[in-house]
Amino acid sequence: MRTGDHAPDFTLRDHRGLPFHLGDALADGPVVLFFYPAAGSAGCTAESCHFRDLAAQFADAGAQRVGVSMDGVERQASFADANALDYPLLADVGGHVAAAYGVKRPLDLLRVRRTTFVIDVDRRILEKITGEFSMNAHADRALAALAARA
Q: Tens of pLDDT along 114-140?
């Protein structure tokens, strides 16, 4: 997946067990979809908390934050509760959505490449952000892409 491509539509269960459908979410504005390797790991916690801490800026941009990992609903719920995450965490247990977005790794150890997609309401990818070690860069660059859209 690259900037300008159409984001694949999908439905996954969130950390509360409720269905999350990308197409429905986009009716409310752009979606910042970020894939992370493992709920509760140090890097993923730092990244997810940075997305949490920028809630007001994402709201001002009219965008929704959505995290995705291959962890199950229970683990996602524990992760959300432990870190007071105020946005959906999706359980892509089989890695099908990660594969559709081209971020699933061939080995199960790290599962997915840390990647963020800024998706506009027409399902076009405005920005693709990659990088395994700069945990704040994903949210910061997503906000910049949303600002450039306006």
A: 999 999 999 999 999 998 778 788 999
Look up the domain containing 106 and give its range: 11-149
Query: Going by C-beta distance under 8 Å and a sequence separation of 6 or more, which residues neighbour residue 145?
Result: 118, 126, 127, 129
Q: Is residue 4 part of a domain?
A: no
What distance in Å separates the CA atoms of residue 89 and residue 127, rounded to the nearest whole number?
20
For residue 56, give the CATH number of its domain: 3.40.30.10
Instruction: Encode pLDDT of 74-125 as tens digits.
Output: 999 999 999 999 999 999 999 999 999 999 987 666 688 899 999 999 999 9
Question: Which positions ≥6 away from 97 have C-beta within 8 Å?
Answer: 8, 10, 12, 68, 90
Asked whether 146 and 61 are in contact (CB, 8 A), the reply is yes
The closest alpha carbon to 48, from 8, 88, 13, 97, belongs to 88
Residues annotated as part of the active site: 44
- 112: helix, strand or coil: strand
